[in-house]
Specification:
heterodimer; A: about 110 residues; mainly beta; 6-stranded mixed beta sheet; 5-stranded antiparallel beta sheet; 11 strands; B: about 110 residues; 7-stranded mixed beta sheet; 4-stranded antiparallel beta sheet; about 0% helix; globular
């Protein structure tokens, strides 16, 4: 069965600093991978997705993620954090024929 | 464009009372539909999903049930709420094109059982 591990339940960065949110997955077949963002008391919004095309995926709001099969990772990055990036971020995986499995989430705080 | 509506936004119910949360999708046909529950620090737990009218798969045995009376309507119910049913409930949909179709979420229902 597939699973997702998000390292760090809380990450804090300074405004303008690099954002790095870690995601490692386990899947018995080539996976589809997703990153979502959630603002307080709202649903989840898709940031980006990997569906076996380019390994470097660009998403909304300046975020990107790189699929590394050898490391079973799909880390999310943004070169320069903005105050509006403060939110909770979820990594999710599916082999394609079953519903998405989500990680426990990483709360990102941005310090002015 | 497709939209998903979920209501109510917040709900406070006493222990032992019934529950009905509704979700509808507009602008698409034959979607897959999902109910997730979110508890603090525990990520999203898949409760139910449906690939068609009357077809419900339950992921976790519990005090809840789901129904899909119409193609774009998904209902989450309980006959008697427990304290442990408190949480943030999210409805979602995606296309029937396999895993590459991302989930689209509603704005959620915050349920507090007192």
């Amino acid at each position: 069965a597939q699973s997702v591990t998000q390292l760090g339940s809380h990450v804090s960065v300074s405004e303008g600093a690099l954002v790095l949110l870690r995601c490692n997955y386990s899947s018995s077949v080539p996976p589809y991978l997703f990153w979502y963002v959630q603002y307080p008391n709202q649903g989840l919004q898709l940031l980006l997705k990997y569906t076996s095309a380019a390994t470097l995926v660009k998403g909304i709001n300046g975020f990107e993620a790189e699929f590394k099969k050898s490391e079973t990772s799909f880390h999310l990055t943004k070169p320069s954090a903005h105050m509006s990036d403060a939110a909770e971020y979820f990594c999710a995986v599916t082999p394609g024929n079953t519903p998405l499995v989500f990680g426990k989430g990483t709360r990102l705080s941005v310090i002015a | 464009s497709q939209t998903i509506h979920q209501w109510p936004a917040t709900l406070v119910q006493p222990v032992g009372s019934p529950l009905s949360l509704e979700c509808t999708v507009e602008g698409t046909s034959n979607p897959n539909l999902y109910w997730y529950r979110q508890a603090a620090g525990r990520g999203l737990q898949l409760l139910f999903y449906s690939v068609g009218i009357g077809q419900i798969s339950s992921e976790v045995p519990q005090n809840l049930s789901a129904s899909r009376p119409q193609d774009r309507q998904f209902i989450l119910s309980s006959k008697k709420l427990l304290l442990s049913d408190s949480g943030f409930y999210l409805c979602a949909w995606n296309l029937r094109t396999g895993g590459r179709s991302p989930l689209h979420f509603g704005n959620g229902t915050r349920l507090t059982v007192t």
